[in-house]
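Could you help me review a protein record that somebody else here produced? Do not assume that whoever made the record got everything right. The record follows directly below this note.
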Amino acid sequence: MSTVPAHVEANPRLGTWISVADGQVEVHVGKVELGQGILTALAQVAADALALPLARVRMVTAHTTRGPDQGLTAGSLSVLQSAPALRRVGGVVRALAGPTAPEAAYVDRVAALDPDTDLREVAPADPAPVSVVGRSEPRLDLPDKVLGRPRFLADQRPPGLLHGRVLRPPSPGARLLALDEDWKAPGVELVRDGSFLGVVGEREVDVDRALERLGRDARWDEGDLLPDEDDLVAWLRSGEHEEVPVLDEGTLPEPTLSATYSKPFLAHGSIAPSTAIARWDDDLLHVMSHSQGIHALRDALAAVLGIPAVDVTVEHVENAGCYGHNAADDAALDAALLARAVPGRPVLARWTRPDELTWGPLSSAMTATLSATLEGGRVTGWSHDVWSQGHSSRPGFRGTPGLLAGAHLAEPTPLPPAHDPPLAAGGGTTRNAVPGYTVGPRRVAGHRKLDSPLRTSAMRALGAYLNVFAIECFLDELADAAGADPLQLRLDHLDDPRGVRVLETAGRLAEWGAPLPEDVGRGLGYARYKGTGAHCAVVAEVAVHSEVRVRRLTVVADVGEVVNPDGARNQLEGGATQATSWTLHERVRFDRHRLLTTDWETYPVLRFSEAPPVAVELVASAEPPVGAGEAAQGPTAAALANAVHAALGVRVRDLPLTPDAIVRAIEAADA
């Protein structure tokens, strides 16, 4: 019998994955739609596995009591983890249900299958012919979004809905000192537990007015806990660290070149602030959330609320934007705490834009120092040290709920320092810190900062964004020192034929080496995500005058088997566009007391007028599918910085590439 996929081993019951209703086979999955098109791709895999047309398949999104527990939807792993499971399920269904024609009779036979069938104990039928996988099928989620139907969580209006808001402390570590015990506001009910303050009411306008008044009336004890934002590199290297040795291949020759690179704290910046709906019926809690991991969220909610996990149900409903561990889980606890005051009524807890930008988990600031040895045009030794906070503080880490409001309750549950995923899963601080090139003996080490008042967690690509930026910029600096072409230097040091093909294709499509006007530069970035995932090369062409204007991006990737070509291209284009925003604009600002980025003016993101044309090419491959959503971020950042250097002859090593940063680099070069 064939090897049982891990997600089937963990969820072996047929009825966990398959049901039938209204003449369609319902496919239940634990991976969630975040705007990345995953439900469409998995529907294509399921349709082929079941030997059914796509129209006969209905995807059922994640639910803690109806469907498999597939952990997190993160890390560009959804297709890699889910496709083998769905193919096993489909093979077992076909083995048990018999002939797949006529269609209606086949679906009826599927409906009659025993839902308690153990998928591990039945030999699957041979794979059915591929007819849907590999085609650019239209996204299943787009019609609702294009037509303005209430698909997003913030648009849901269940009967009896109440609105809720939570008043956040003014700064990290602040504690409530005083609020009138008899505080009241028209049309709302006050919910208070320690430093947790919220209001619930029938009318959203009353709730918002009450929240504003509550903010004026509450008194807080604040401290100056935040670091010096103008010296993050020194701060990241100070204090206690967990040392993470990644690679040590022996004695390194004397380095001939060293450089230090950095990125600031970044916010997820989702278009829609985080939201949740919760309802208590007796002692049972039902939550609608846009969490990336609803089973872990269920357990965390139960731990904070002091109830059995079996009494909590969480279903996933999509919201507009995600990009990693944003505040979706936190909003779920807010909703549960507010709804507990009004049993039997659903409460929609919606965060404000300032809440989202100042209280949602951040992407950690990072800094890396690289050194290398050049001998006869070859790199013969390499060292990479990277400092960062951890990149995951998701619910459930080390048995702690990790939910924001829990830390503000009279009986608080702590917010532990962020950790990093294990190296075998790609790591966090050290993700992509190992160069994929043949550069002689290599030494790579991470240094995870343990003490910080700023809460960090996973954002798209984790530490790979900074590490790839640093490696690929440093390679360009080495090429300058060697008098070599940057593309050729990479090809000369790359033994991976898939990587070589991606780089050569990118160079050809971007017209590498063709003449450019004055103040226009072309730059390159390349990486294999996590060292095991998608190969991606990006060539950026920029014009630099008073600011950086991106003329075009060329993205080439090998993502293995492509389930939905248009979906893969969308993911790469979106990743490159978001990385352009991070690289040119984004930075969380703060003083020693408070975060200062509270809106799109103080936290600017890429505007539509700045969005560059992005050409995406997928290199054909028969290898297993890997995710595309996090492959382009690091290469894009490096390509942009290298293009700025090509245009101006100065190197900006500290992100973002703002006009002020470029002026400082020019002044430093002239000094």
User: Anything to note?
Assistant: Residues 154-221+269-359 form a domain with the Aldehyde Oxidoreductase; domain 4 fold (CATH 3.30.365.10). The mean pLDDT is 96. The first strand starts at residue 18 and ends at 21.
